[in-house]
Amino acid sequence: MENDVTRQTRKLSQLYAFTSIQMHEAIARKAGLSGTDHKYLGFLIEKGQMTAGELSTLTGLTTGAVTGLIDRFEKKKLVKRKFAEDDRRKVIIEPDTKKIMTLFVPLYKEFRKKSEKLIASFSTRERKIIETYFSKAIEIMNDTTSKLNKK
């Protein structure tokens, strides 16, 4: 049974997620991308170079959709395709991290500054609680995603 505190926290978490999507969509539009393309580009920055198949597995997109995604990134010169040295049939997607950061850093500058100020306003104990919540919530989401993708 869901109590009031749980319901309130769940609603706040949902509002955070919705607001995050709206902000990232606005940032993406300013950068000339869609919101989802922006987030998938984030996967490439975070994970580094990978094959198109690996990106497909990571994102849950079909290989055809990943090809279109890579085409859009390549057109904007945000990634390069290169052949794997050990197998020329394998294409490696290499992000141009410098160019990507040049595009996004100015768009995130004020958000980042305000977020850092907000985080600094919490005590070490409070930050640990927030960190624990996010870490465990991420585990739950990853588990849910994994189970849904297996069905």
Automatic annotation (TrEMBL):
Q: Which InterPro entries does the protein's record reference?
A: HTH_MarR-typ, WH-like_DNA-bd_sf, WH_DNA-bd_sf
- Domain HTH marR-type per the UniProt entry, residue ranges: 1-139
Keyword annotations of the record: DNA-binding, Transcription, Transcription regulation
Q: Give coiled-coil spans as residue ranges.
A: none
- Name the species this protein comes from: Niastella caeni
Q: What is this protein called?
A: MarR family transcriptional regulator
User: What is an example of a Pfam family matching this protein?
Assistant: MarR_2
Asked if the record carries the keyword Transmembrane, the reply is no
Output one GO MF annotation: DNA-binding transcription factor activity
